[in-house]
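Researcher: Let's try something more involved. This one mixes different molecule types, so please make sure each is placed in the same coordinate frame as the others.
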Amino acid sequence: MRTVDPVKQAAKRRRILEAAASCFAEMRFQGTRTADICKRAGMSPGNLFHYFPSKHAIIVALIESEGVQTAAYLERLVAEEDAIGALFTLIDAVVEPAADPEYAGLALDTAAAAQRDEGIAAVVARNDRRLRAGIADLLRRAAAAGRIDAGPAADGAATRIAARIDGIFARPATDPNFAPREQAPMLRLLLTRFPRVEQP
Amino acid sequence: MRTVDPVKQAAKRRRILEAAASCFAEMRFQGTRTADICKRAGMSPGNLFHYFPSKHAIIVALIESEGVQTAAYLERLVAEEDAIGALFTLIDAVVEPAADPEYAGLALDTAAAAQRDEGIAAVVARNDRRLRAGIADLLRRAAAAGRIDAGPAADGAATRIAARIDGIFARPATDPNFAPREQAPMLRLLLTRFPRVEQP
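Model: All components are placed in one shared frame. Result:
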């Protein structure tokens, strides 16, 4: 009887996802064929299909794994003593990939794909809930520490911050002079004033 | 000798663009074939190719015509006596299509396409320059009327408002509970405070 080594299996899954991420960054979702991913992963189609039945399944798994990484990152941030400092760190961590055309392009593709595919939409929405929950958590902790006024409005403020992050990712495609990193100081400033200003 | 009637030509171009817009709304850029557009426009491929050599040319012309409409709309707004009122009208005019999944989906597709196609990027960037110039104009006029403090910071504020608009268009794909129309009161409130708050 053939036994399955779960460690080896996980490593192979990871190898496929890494190959896929590199193909998607270069050729986007539409332009990438499963054959390209096989080639880059150094695997036969039969072997790859043993792990993922389709390109769609690879896309979903990749977005899921991105969500898991973001969740782990947020968990570390939320555990930090200084909630405002953690929010500032988060802003820096967000504008960095937004300034990377390949990453920002994939983020746009992912949003566009979520808009027309329920499976992708579900994973994207779950990742987004985690992100907003993390931001709201930090806002509440900053409010409890008397640094901002957010308290009861934290969920709404987190949603608006998420919308701003979306805008920072989308804007470079439209305005070639838009520099995501330059938005960081303004976002930091607004983060501390926002909830107060936006109190109804 | 065959003569060309420019009025008839313009009407045919418009008919093709309308058919294309309806196909793209339903099947997006990637899912639409030129044959679908021909069918919906009631034209033969030969006839259609006389006006547009490719689907790409139709996409570019459609984004151009959207830009022309936006420019005409902005021109009317900028001519209004009450600049703040005109800005509020603009916000309402923006959240409405953002709440329409088909339109918002096409906006995401357009941004994603601009990210990888120089021809589309050039038209998208020109439309965006017009939008930002219109917003900056209105902010400067509102400042001149003593309604806001924007004056010298109007261009930067217009860019940030444009980024917020991008976020409002992108967010529904990620967060199914996000309601663009609900953002209007907050945007109106921020528009009047923003430039002041954001003064460095």
